[in-house]
Design goal:
Elements lengths: L6 E4 L2 E7 L6 E7 L2 E7 L2 E8 L4 H11 L9 E9 L2 E8 L1 H14 L13 H4 L13 E2 H11 L4 H6 L3 E6 L5 E7 L2 H14 L8 E4 L5 H8 L5 E4 L5 H10 L2 E7 L2 E6 L4 E2 L1
Parallel strand pairs: 4-7, 8-15, 11-12, 12-13
Antiparallel strand pairs: 1-2, 2-3, 4-5, 6-7, 9-10, 9-11, 13-14
Helix pairs in contact: 1-6, 6-7, 7-8
Length: 272
């Protein structure tokens, strides 16, 4: 069997000769890249995430928002992307006040030997969400939801090439796609969408989200950072996600296909 040679195509994927049934005839497959991405705030390394190395400016901004490292977009000054030997560094500059709070959070973690949810000391710090400023009375048409679901798969360019990534997309109330982000991690993809939407000043409360993954409680939490009230998951929700969505006024749809889906909370939002 001939030796395999990796062929780099783009930052997000890699071409790789694969052999079916030990055949000598190699088939070129495209694999999704999974890269260590270090978040460095004001010169101090905070965390390393495994992610697809695309849309990193959006990732840096969205992660900083959802992790509450910054309290507003004005606290995020800049991000510099450095490709280094073992991965990528995101050198992020934030306000002094936010950096002081981040250092205090890091200090509280020092010496812990078994923090299941690191950084969380109480249950209220785990089941948290950003309270929506004003949930609109918008209704979402079944026809427009079906239209959005019809588009969703065709807009997942990286998934089509690799079969190994998640996607999160933002749609307007008529089912028109506004932006989509992909990543090997579903939470990363959502953070990228949040970062992109805020950076592009897309603040329409009538928009909604479709995610290729299951709907965990974290996905409901992330939705609140865009002040939206509808999330549609291709896979199943968790029970905690349904309870949280019900509590805060979010309509949660799961097992979504173009011709059918299940509404788990606030079904009054969906109309024919």
């Amino acid at each position: 069997m001939t030796s395999a040679k990796l062929i780099q195509t783009k930052n997000s994927s890699l071409e790789f000769p694969a052999y079916k049934n030990q055949s000598e005839i190699g088939l070129i497959e495209t694999l999704a890249e999974e890269t260590p991405v270090a978040f460095v705030y004001n010169g101090i390394s905070h965390v390393v995430m495994m992610a697809s190395p695309i849309d990193l400016e959006d990732f840096a901004f969205g992660f900083s928002i959802t992790e509450e490292i910054i309290s507003s977009p004005a606290d995020f000054y800049s991000v510099e992307i450095n490709h280094i030997k073992d991965g990528i560094e995101l050198k992020i500059e934030i306000s002094s006040e936010c950096f002081i709070n981040l250092k205090e959070r890091r200090r509280n973690l020092t010496g812990r030997t078994g923090c299941g949810l690191c950084g969380a000391e109480t249950l209220s710090q785990v089941i948290k969400y950003k309270k929506n400023k004003l949930l609109s009375g918008t209704k979402y048409s079944h026809k427009h939801i079906r239209s959005a679901l019809d588009q969703f798969s065709s807009n997942q360019k990286l998934q089509k090439k690799t079969g190994a990534t998640h996607a999160v997309a933002l749609y307007d109330n008529l089912g028109k796609i506004l932006l989509i982000r992909e990543d090997v991690g579903r939470h990363n993809a959502f953070d990228k969408v949040i970062g992109a939407a805020i950076r592009q000043e897309i603040s329409n409360k009538d928009c909604f989200i479709i995610t290729s993954s299951r709907a965990s409680y974290e996905m409901i939490q992330k939705l609140t950072y865009l002040n939206l009230k509808l999330i549609i998951a291709i896979s199943a929700p968790t029970a905690l996600a349904v309870r949280l969505a019900s509590k805060i006024g979010v309509t949660l749809i799961g097992f979504a296909r173009a011709d059918r889906y299940t509404i788990y909370s606030h079904k009054e939002t969906i109309i024919e």
